[in-house]
Amino acid sequence: MKECIYVVEDDENIREIIDLALTSAGYNVKQFSNALDALKSMENDQVDLAVFDLMLPGISGIDAIKKIRETDQELPILILSAKDREIDKVNGLDSGSDDYMTKPFGVLELQARVRSLLRRHAPKAAPIIESQTLKIDKQTRTVMHNGQVMELTNKEYQLLLYLVENHTRVVERDEILNHIWGYDFIGESRVLDVHIRALRAKLDDDGSKHIKTIRGVGYRYVEEVK
User: What is the pLDDT of residues 185-223, one digit of tens each?
Assistant: First the structure.
């Protein structure tokens, strides 16, 4: 499967150049002209690398990267910006990006930096987690339920994995919201309720066979996990 790369750049001409450079190198590229659309799309996509401009409409590249890092410490992020002062590079790297390139840029260098970031962040041998009815391959992010592949959104996958990995205890609602959605969602429980209902529906769950509600506290995955 081709790696999926998000390109977040408001200049259409530059965005097309980046797209062509990365598509020709064998990657699946998705373009965004602003960070808000990219962040929203990330909720349902499996993204392997993101390229961010800094000066974007709406929220800046720096703020978008900080938002990503609230819940995802692993996604490789490359800043590609015309801001070439040392302080700009320091601020960009300190925000959570893994690399910083300045414009104008060379296509071959861009391709090389992307290859380097993907190599450094290549998943290590990840264990397969199994319960009575589930099999989760963390490396491929594949979930099997009773031998059938489950079609999960990115957030549904993260939520299910977090509950399964913490099956020995009740996971509090605010902890889940913090871990999966970030600090802004603490206290906003509706988004969690919606995703729990969606997971239960996909698990053919009667409400407690897989994910048990502990009223006033949170949730617990109840099947024994190997």
Answer: 555 668 899 999 999 999 876 556 899 999 989 999 998
Q: Helix, strand, or coil here: 43?
A: coil
Any idea which residue has 């938002």 for tokens? 67
Residue boundaries of the structural domains of the chain: 4-120, 128-221
Task: Write down the CATH number for the domain with range 128-221.
Answer: 1.10.10.10
Q: How confident is the model at residue 139 (pLDDT cuts 50, 70, 90)?
A: confident
Residue 148 CA to residue 142 CA, distance in Å, equals 10
* Burial environment of residue 94 by CB neighbours within 10 A (0 to 12, 13 to 18, 19 or more): exposed
Interatomic CA distance for residues 96 and 77, integer angstroms: 8
CA distance 134 to 154: 17
CB-based contacts of 113, cutoff 8 Å, min separation 6: 78, 99, 101
Q: What is the residue-wise DSSP string for 144-161?
A: EETTEE----HHHHHHHH
Report the top-level CATH class of 4-120.
alpha beta
CA distance 4 to 24: 13
Average predicted confidence (pLDDT) for the chain: 91
Bridging pattern class, strands 148-149 and 128-130: unpaired
